[in-house]
Design a protein that fits this description.
The chain has helices at residues 8-40, 46-60, 63-72, 77-87, 100-128, 134-162, 167-186, 204-221, 223-242, 245-253, 258-267, 271-286, 289-300, 302-311, 317-350, 355-384, 386-415. By secondary structure, the chain is mainly α. The radius of gyration is 21 Å and the shape is globular.
Amino acid sequence: MRLGKLSPDERQTAVLLLIAAAFNGFVQSFGQTQDIIARKALLATEWQILIITLIWPVSNFLSIWMGRFLERSCNKSRYILLAGLFGRLSLLWALWMVGIHQYLLLLLLLYSANSLIIPAQNSIFQRNIDVSRRAKVYGYTQSLGMLISIVVTFIAGRLLDSKESSYRLILAATGIAGFIHCFFLSRVKIAPLPDCNKEEKLPWKTVLLDPIRRTFRLLKENPAFASFERSFSIYGMGFIMMTPVIPLYLVDVLKLNYTTNFLSKGILSQMGMLLLSPLIGKLHDRMHPLSFISVSFATLMVFPLLVIVSAAFAGNQVIATTLIFVAYLIFGLAMTGINIAWNMSSIFFAGKDDAAMYQSVHVTLTGIRGLVAPFLGLGLMRLFGYQAVFLVAAGFLLSAALISRRDYRRLRVRST
């Protein structure tokens, strides 16, 4: 990234975001491997893996209230620090942790903090980075974060294969790095919106109901944003229904060890973000979000299809593992685009409004689908086997791609 082409304020923001992203790489690494650790080290049952899958969407429900709160706040920095303290530094408790239940509690704290951190980060990009290079700058931060994540994931896999109890140290290190990430985010100076009013106190009824009313109003008044959210919800059903099933498949069916699991799920799956985030971010800046996600969803559809093929070679670990490696490389390519759209597209639809609320609506809606999809995945697995899960997931992803393309064409016709 050529910092010289940025304005002084943009340059200062970009540097702080890059430093923050480097430390967030630890959190991203843990997010890719948390279910493998639960299954192998803590002997999590199927329903406990399901709970791990549900923690993220349940935590996301807080986001519309966090977003509305940030939208009204004149000083977002202090709240980013509080999120880092309670949602990241709390992972230090892992040094004394015993059993899966405390592990689940730490995950709940970790992901609850995201409901504030993600909208706050969107406000930083919207307010401090020009629209013509916003997603590209985000792409560079993602690439750096992925580089750190890949290195940390490799080291973590080797540590766990040599000493399984080292997962406690991995969690503690994740917590410290996650707090440092929040610290550098909080150092970014964001100009407050004219209508922020930190002194105004609202009745509790207004505090609770206003974000819900605002959510419905945004979706009604911005049909393009509503179309975007519909497509993301359909994609999310396919993506999230695979989440509780994948660790069971990799550990129980293919019998992969920590190093191989982490290589596929934690390293190869992130190579796309490492190498292609700036380029794909630049494409996102030039394309309409609906057109962009259509291509990303269609690419991701290849992942579950390859997993289905790998099941046919479960008795030959070399071939099956190779297919899983290829599947995760394609997964990484698709998720690079989806990740950029997930984090940046809300700013496009927000226009001149504060993007924090739009992103909060987006995050909360992901929580709704996330409460249903994991049950669908495990239910299909028990009734019809692993292959049925991945086949239905591919169907959801194909539907999301086609609907996004159709909605984009309709919007383009209306605008001409």
